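Can anyone check this?
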Amino acid sequence: MYRIVIILILFLSVEKYKAQDTLNTLLVEKVSYQLYQEKKWDELIVFSKKAIKQDFDYYYLRLRLGIAYYEQKRYLLATTHFQKAIVFNSSDDLVKEYLYYCYIYSGRYVDAKILSNEFGDDLVKKIGINNSSSLDIIEISAGGKFPNSPQFENTHPEKLYNIRNLDSADVNSTDTARYSNAKYFQLAFGHYVKNRFYLFHAFSNFVQETDHFSHGFKTFDLHNPQFLSRDSTNHFTSPITKKSYDVTKQIQYYIGATIPFKNNWTVSPSIHFINSSIQSRTENTVFSKSVMHPPMLPPEIVEVPFNPTLQTNSIKANSIYMVESFSVSKRISNLSISLGNTFSNFDKTKRIQTSLSINYAPLGNNRIILSGDIHHVYTIDSAESRVALAPAITLFPTNRFMLTLGYMVDFNDKQKDVNSNNVIEGNGLLINNSTDKTHSRFSAVGNFIIGKHLDFFAVYTYENNFATLPLPPDHPNAPPLGFNYYYNNFFVGIRIKNFKKFTNQNNN
């Protein structure tokens, strides 16, 4: 009976508090503890936030507020208060354990690893942390790019070519391009360096064959033979067909670091090397045609039959390109902001890309993440500048499945930005150094947790590209020609994980 009376008095004091605008230390402690004991997490959150706003801030209040968010699986919000609690008391293993799991369930594995350096033997044993190896993950993935057999045809008017000594001409030029399926393979692994920062390595191989740019000049018809003097012969020679078979092979190596700092700051430098080898075989079929003005006869044209000649040329070109990236990110509760800069020198053209990334978790955990990237690409040599946008949403509907849907649109000008390369993403990891421009791309990424040591992931993207064809001879000022085509890209892979507790307790 006595205990019931005490609880009733405490309950009445809580109700009385709700009508008050000011608090005192004793009331804050009593009310927060009572709400914690009763597991009234919503009321505890409201009360604790109001107390902190009125400058009542101490270890147990932050701990209880963090636990309230944790029990609601709002780990991003809980992290902020556990970090504050550790400032008040860094010796309590309880708050360290809670913070460790908040990092894990929020995907902040590097922060969790660094925090575990402060654990005693009992806490390490309790959680089951494996510190025997610095290796974190191994990834193996493969896939291909499958085009829609693009073909472009265009008949150029005579005046575009400005053929000398001709009054008029029937000149046709048909440009085509066909892309074979591309093959891609990647081996990657991540590891910790003295449990202080994280390194990710990726070795990639890309191969694609291309049959492109077949064009020719067809029948000539001379209407002004007076251009020719008597007894003279004028010869016109032009390639009627030109076929180029290219085999592109790229060997790539990427290394990126994740270095956490205090107050939720993270620095991420990276460098990406691309060794590009292009084996080209060109076939030119050349036709000769003579126009004659016979002596002592009225002006007339004498047609001489075409004499085809096949010319073959093979060239192999090797180039080494480099992409350097650096980003700084700051996490504020359930919001993360990152600012990065990337430098590349594809095709000996220097480009600088500035990227702003924002990630927002409205539920305070990884169940739903809204993100968006803004990229500004500036080509130094040609002073071309453009912007690309890439919004995305990540869903974690179950403990074993994650889905990310994204869209990218690049506002490049098909007729203007001829020297610009495609946007570089993922802090220098995802590159597309094709001279063809990707104007838009839809992507879907699924990650399936098979077991505590194994994930399976699959990637699908649909690209809308524009291929720029070579300008006609003697016409550097003509507008670029080209055609749109599409890629269906499929990639699958497995991820082998080293940590024992990172996935089997994942209840985001």
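Reply from J.R.: I decoded it. The first strand starts at residue 135 and ends at 147.
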